[in-house]
Amino acid sequence: METPVLPTPASHPLWQHQLGLLLESTGEGIFGIDLDGHCMFINRAGAQMLGHAQAEVLGRNMHELTHHSHPDGSHYADTDCPIFNAFRRGLPCRIDTEVFWRADGSAFAVEYSSHPIVDGAQVRGAVITFVDITERRRAARALQQAKDELGLRVDERTRELSDALAKLRELSAWLDKVREDERTRIAREVHDELGSLLVALKMDVNWIGKRLGEQQERSPAAAEDMRTLMRGKCQNMSGLIERAVDNVGRIITDLRPSILDHQGLWAALEWQAHEFVQSAELELAWHMEVQPGIELPEPAAIAVFRIFQEMLSNVGRHAKASRLDIRIEADASLLRIAVRDNGIGAPAHVFEAATAYGVLGMRERARHFGGRIEIESEPGAGSVFQLEMPL
User: Fold this and answer.
1) How many beta carbons lie within 10 A of that of residue 233, not counting itself?
2) Which phi and psi angles does 233 have, rounded to 5°?
3) Which residues of the chain have a pLDDT value below 50?
4) Is residue 10 exposed (0-12), middle (13-18) or buried (19+ Cβ within 10 Å)?
């Protein structure tokens, strides 16, 4: 091993040898300077970091050699140098914001500490230890960049979640309004239709009861005439009862079609389509291709039926169409329902608006079962609503 260059003679050869081993064993750069800033000793690691041979550094002014400029290249006066202040003012320091300059004129980020060398009460110079922190700086910048990117992603995700939560709240409020509107409609139908029928039945029953109480006072001929009137009244009451039964059945069907329970989803979809085009006076092109034995669990079947109802409802409310093309296909892996109309259509952004609650409701129902809703529409070209759901 090459013997390190040491300060002028130590008091004991063994001490000098041990100090040389200590200086050469460390990976940090170490050098010492006298009161004029000239190098008295430097270890091999320090000389290599500076790009010099050890012998070339001895006796050189270390500030002029390696600390002469700031990172931006501007002049660094030795009167401002913390290394020199270590012995000029007796101020030890530890700095990690500066650079040292190599022999080839390049600079490297450095962390150094400077401590005065004191002999009794007299300062003789300073010893400086330094390390190249270029990789540490690069890692710190990379870490900071990663933190910044993570912060941006967190902020973006937070905004997305906030937007989604706001849409969810709006959708929930819309669903509550829809439910209340439906309750109001059913209550109105029960009150206006069933209520009026029951009132009429009650009046007829009271009339019959009153006439029956007067029968004994009538002559046989008058009693027979009254029985004829009561038979007519009973026939009228029978008609009212049939109307009440029909109204109850219709209200129940609106709430949940019995065909969905009795004949299954596919029959319910066909029934709903034909009911809709009949009431809306539309032409219907119907195509259904379902492999035998394909059945959906009840929750999924209800969701598909409600999505189909909303598709038809959208056509009825907005499309102003004259023709409807419905295609339903299902195999063991996928269900696809497409509802195409020849109506007025709309720009795509209309269906993505925050207030398009019907579309939001369909998407949420489909997403719950792993499906998705696709909508194609252009002004004047009609619309296509398509549901795809894995089975």
Assistant:
1) 15
2) -65, -40
3) 1-12
4) middle
